[in-house]
């Protein structure tokens, strides 16, 4: 509901000459981007966001003073991730002659967030549409989000079972307000019931995660359109400032929005890479038990938001787009909560055999969404050592004691992820028969299917691969491959795959074996 008339303010900010004295801008146009809660005015090198004087159940921008405080909060919160973009808060003032001015000497009548304008073509939703997002972009993004979450304020009075139940109840109420026939009413009821059933199963976990400090002041609106490239780095912006309940959440619920966004745009492979990189950094495998619920809740929110927007859309084509998207999100919300049968796959082979590449690319094909947890010994070793994934470990990182710790950690994380209902791909050399037997026992103890793959390639191919690697977690080199070639491997009863050829051929061999296992 609109409260105050801001037409004069909008008219002032729509004129190019308004900005000349402040920024020296000489542009002849001001571009506007409008939403139901804000108007953004784009000049040559700046963006000014005006908060609309509106009140909704989740938001109150009714007075100029409230808008000022939320502008200040927006700058403060987003400076955590994009300090070079958020420049400050600027008043719109009324001069002595009764006219309005940007940052004038008179009494402030409204407030703006001032931002440095960036290249909108680097927004991640546009990069995704152009097909230029890749593994490296997802790994960088996973690192950035993990760092952000690590630094975020820990909270003990938010999140947990009760807060999650409130979101589910809000979704139910929001669906009830949508006109009949727009969405499948039976599907809505199934999603609501399944959400409550999933919450019953993981409610104690959610409370425990809050006690462990995993409810934090997060972003709250973490989707592709709120990420862009700035100075070559993935940068998060436009975090929630207007409702603390939306931002004070479990870190995996924050990440779930982005995973859901990628998956619903049919980029499950990228969603899988992102999740696995994040977990490589954080080691938060236990939280996987709540991920299906978190993904479903995020999809449900998008479904009823788009469905309601459809009812307000006068353009028939745009209304149809919103309707179809709302239905798609509802289907995904139900799909995420469908029962899944986890399994354990082991990818073994000497360095350069292609096992890690196969694990990464095969992961997205295993349930539940967005794919298997890839527990890679190279990443696990560096997490244990407290070293960045992109760093190289010295000799101390490869002592027999450290190697034993690494394998035990791989087995343990596989156990935890399987217990959470998630499929696992264990990715390590598995050179010794005792190691191969140990990972098979993990599957046996968990009561899940197991398949072991042993990848092998010509020695010169393996050495060439490790020599030409770029931005790889592994520290393996050609001399290490030569050393591994002298290993006594023992009898290998796993399915052996010749990985000397293309990655597509290696994948086809793996898929054929897995198809037989599933029959």
Walk across the major sheet and give the strand order. Answer: 1-2-3-8-6-7
How large is the share of residues in beta strands? 15-25%
Class by alpha and beta content:
alpha/beta
User: Architecture of the largest domain, CATH level 2?
Assistant: Alpha-Beta Complex
Extended strand count: 17
Helical residues, percent:
40-55%
Give the domain tally. Answer: 3
CATH superfamily of the largest domain: Aminoglycoside phosphotransferase (APH), C-terminal lobe
Silhouette: globular
CATH class of the largest domain: Alpha Beta
How widely separated are the two ends? 57 Å
User: How would you state the average pLDDT, rounded?
Assistant: 95
CATH third-level topology of the largest domain: Aminoglycoside 3'-phosphotransferase, Chain: A, domain 2
Main sheet attributes: strand count, strand direction, barrel closure: 6 strands, antiparallel
What report would you give on this structure?
By secondary structure, the protein is of the alpha/beta class. The chain folds into three domains: 7-117, Phosphorylase Kinase, domain 1; 124-336, Aminoglycoside 3'-phosphotransferase, Chain: A, domain 2; 344-518, Rossmann fold (3-Layer(aba) Sandwich), CATH 3.40.50.300. 49% of the residues lie in helices and 15% in strands. It contains 19 helices and 17 strands. The chain has helices at residues 7-13, 20-23, 64-78, 124-129, 135-151, 160-176, 185-211, 244-247, 251-264, 268-282, 291-312, 316-336, 355-362, 377-385, 400-419, 433-446, 459-467, 478-484, 503-518, and strands at residues 31-34, 38-42, 46-51, 55-56, 59-60, 86-94, 100-102, 107-116, 215-217, 227-230, 233-236, 248-250, 344-349, 373-376, 424-427, 450-456, 495-498. A six-stranded antiparallel beta sheet has the order 1-2-3-8-6-7. A five-stranded parallel beta sheet has the order 14-15-13-16-17, with helices on both faces. A hairpin with a 5-residue loop joins strand 6 (86-94) and strand 7. Helix 17 packs antiparallel against helix 18 (478-484). The radius of gyration is 26 Å and the shape is globular. The model has no long low-confidence stretch (mean pLDDT 95).
């Amino acid at each position: 509901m609109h409260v105050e008339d801001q037409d004069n303010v909008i008219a002032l900010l729509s004129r190019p000459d308004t900005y000349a004295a402040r920024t020296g801008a000489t542009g002849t146009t001001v571009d506007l981007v409008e939403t139901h809660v804000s108007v953004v005015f784009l000049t040559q090198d700046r963006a000014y966001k005006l908060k609309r004087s509106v009140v909704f159940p989740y938001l109150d921008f009714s007075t100029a003073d409230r808008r000022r405080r939320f502008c200040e909060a927006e700058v403060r919160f987003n400076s955590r991730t994009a300090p070079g973009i958020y420049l400050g808060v600027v008043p719109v003032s009324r001069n002595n002659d009764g006219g309005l001015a940007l940052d004038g000497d008179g009494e402030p009548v409204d407030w703006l967030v001032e931002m440095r304008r960036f290249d909108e073509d680097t927004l991640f939703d546009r990069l995704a549409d152009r097909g230029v997002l890749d593994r490296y972009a997802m790994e960088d993004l996973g690192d950035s989000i993990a760092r952000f979450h690590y630094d975020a304020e820990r909270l003990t009075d938010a999140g947990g079972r009760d807060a999650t139940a409130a979101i589910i109840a809000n979704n139910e109420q929001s669906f009830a307000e949508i006109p009949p026939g727009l969405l499948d009413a039976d599907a809505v009821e199934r999603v609501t019931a399944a959400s409550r059933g999933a919450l019953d199963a993981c409610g104690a976990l959610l409370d425990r995660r809050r006690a462990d400090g995993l409810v934090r002041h997060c972003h709250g609106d973490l989707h592709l359109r709120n990420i862009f490239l700035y100075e070559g780095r993935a940068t998060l912006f436009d975090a929630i400032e207007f409702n603390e309940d939306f931002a004070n959440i479990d870190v995996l619920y924050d990440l779930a929005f982005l995973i859901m966004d990628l998956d619903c745009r049919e980029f499950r492979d990228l969603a899988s890479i992102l999740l696995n990189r994040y977990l490589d950094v954080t080691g938060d495998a236990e939280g996987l038990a709540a991920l299906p619920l978190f993904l479903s809740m995020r999809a449900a929110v998008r479904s009823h938001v788009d469905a309601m927007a459809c009812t307000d859309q006068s353009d028939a084509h745009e209304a149809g787009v919103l309707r179809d998207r709302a239905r798609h999100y509802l289907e995904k919300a139900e799909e995420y909560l469908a029962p899944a049968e986890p399994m354990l796959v082991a990818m073994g082979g000497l360095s350069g055999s292609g096992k890690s590449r196969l694990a990464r690319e095969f992961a997205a094909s295993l349930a539940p969404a967005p794919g298997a947890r890839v527990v890679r010994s190279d990443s696990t070793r560096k997490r244990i050592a407290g070293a960045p994934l992109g760093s190289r470990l010295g000799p101390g990182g490869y002592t027999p004691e450290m190697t034993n710790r690494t394998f035990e950690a791989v087995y343990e994380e596989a156990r935890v992820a399987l217990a959470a209902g998630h499929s696992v791909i264990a990715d390590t050399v598995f050179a010794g028969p005792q190691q191969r037997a140990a990972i098979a026992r993990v599957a046996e103890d968990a009561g899940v299917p197991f398949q072991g793959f042993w990848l092998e390639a010509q020695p010169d191919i393996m050495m060439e691969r490790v020599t030409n690697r770029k931005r790889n977690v592994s520290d393996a080199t050609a001399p290490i491959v030569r050393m591994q070639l002298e290993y006594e491997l023992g009898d290998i009863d796993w399915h052996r795959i010749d990985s000397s050829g293309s990655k597509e051929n290696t994948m086809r061999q793996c898929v054929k074996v897995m198809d037989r296992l599933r029959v």
